[in-house]
Design goal:
Length: 156
């Protein structure tokens, strides 16, 4: 009986943790009201094709409350196996802004960089390409962006 009670308590705690994680993601990730990430671009395409490819809404998956669209079934299956490998860093916000000012700034899904096996997205509008600025001072901005993002998700 104690084992059953213990397992029940573990299950309830796990479900509460999962719900809290989903709420944090929905609050802090760069998502419109429909919860589609990266403005509908396929997160796996950045890695496999080294380019941004628009995903299709009929080839989609929800991961912890966030919806990702894919250009192919194969990309969806790759994501399903290892979502943390393909999800954009900093909830899909501009990596440069996160490191430079600690702000959540919109991105251009076609302006990106794969760094240490992770996807980083950048703002690129009105004659300002923040990927260029990031590349000039990547090491310092990277450290600052990690710290800034952690403050967002830890603050809940």
């Amino acid at each position: 009986m104690k084992k059953v009670l213990y397992l029940f308590i573990l299950l309830v705690n796990f479900q509460l943790f999962a719900q809290e994680d989903q709420m944090i993601r929905l609050k802090h990730f760069n998502l419109p009201t429909n919860h589609v990430a990266i403005k509908g671009y396929d997160p796996v395409s950045y890695f496999l094709s080294n380019k941004a490819i628009k995903g299709k809404s009929d080839i989609a998956i929800s991961h912890k409350g966030v919806i990702y669209n894919f250009s192919t079934i194969e990309n969806l299956l790759a994501f399903k196996k290892e979502p943390s490998k393909y999800e954009p860093q900093y909830g899909g916000w501009c990596a440069y802004a996160m490191g430079n000012s600690g702000e959540k700034v919109e991105i251009d899904p076609e302006t990106f960089k794969i760094l240490n096996g992770k996807l980083y997205l950048f703002y690129n509008k009105f004659f300002t390409n923040t990927l260029t600025l990031w590349n000039k001072n990547e090491q310092i901005l990277f450290k600052k962006s990690e710290k800034s993002w952690n403050q967002f998700v830890e603050a809940k």
